[in-house]
Recover the amino acids of this structure.
């Protein structure tokens, strides 16, 4: 081995040790030339926690006196619950969607603008509701072997309180 190749090897080893040492430095910290440690990037300001109870109370207050009116006349951008009394919408959202999927309102909605379609999850929920309606209204209804049984599917049928639908069942 020549001196030149030995120097290259030494430099390479030192470089690799330097990189490995960085793995042990807490993320986001750098050391300045003067030896002081400081944050490499400012920490993002955490968003305030969503207050579900306050939001639901505010929505119920908004609906007060209009509970029996069709939802589309009280709320903006109602797509799948047209004709449903406005007083039932908050409960449907809380039990039928939030609880069934294990999420809060902000999973699909922007609380500053409940009517917004900006979140893809809101659009997915609409499509999933349409799928459940088709299964209940066409497929299950036409199964002759069910007889007079009132079989239905809803969000809970698959989601079981989890965002990701259950794809297998636990074994005994």
């Amino acid at each position: 081995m020549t001196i030149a190749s030995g120097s290259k090897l030494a430099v390479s080893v030192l470089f690799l040790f330097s990189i490995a040492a960085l793995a042990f430095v807490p993320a986001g910290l750098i050391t300045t030339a003067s030896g002081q440690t400081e944050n490499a990037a400012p920490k993002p300001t955490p968003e305030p926690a969503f207050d579900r109870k306050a939001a639901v109370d505010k929505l119920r207050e908004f609906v007060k006196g209009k509970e029996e009116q069709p939802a589309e006349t009280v709320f903006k951008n109602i797509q799948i619950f047209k004709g449903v009394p406005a007083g039932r919408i908050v409960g449907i959202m809380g039990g039928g969607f939030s609880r069934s999927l294990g999420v809060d309102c902000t999973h699909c909605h922007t609380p500053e603008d409940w009517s917004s379609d900006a979140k893809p999850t809101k659009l997915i929920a609409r499509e999933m509701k349409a799928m459940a309606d088709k299964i209940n209204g066409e497929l299950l209804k036409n199964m002759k072997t069910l007889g007079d049984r009132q079989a239905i599917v809803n969000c809970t049928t698959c989601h079981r309180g989890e965002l990701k639908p259950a794809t297998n069942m636990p074994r005994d």
Q: What stands out?
A: The beta strands are 29-31, 37-39. Confidence is low (pLDDT under 50) at residues 9-28. The radius of gyration is 28 Å.
